[in-house]
Write the structure tokens for this entry.
Amino acid sequence: MGYIVKLIPEDLYLVPSDCQIGLTEYREKALAEGLFHDYAEANAKAKLFRKEMAINIDYVVESSTKE
């Protein structure tokens, strides 16, 4: 199981790479390319993307198994 980060207002998902953090509107792409192994890692990457973001207001960390 893994986790993905969804930006709430923008309705986009984070897709991190080695050098930068990209965005996608597709959950499937986020699952394929932006999967985090644990919740803390996903939360930390969201904070790195935009420090002032608040969980459950600006973003959510979703389970990869959520339908």
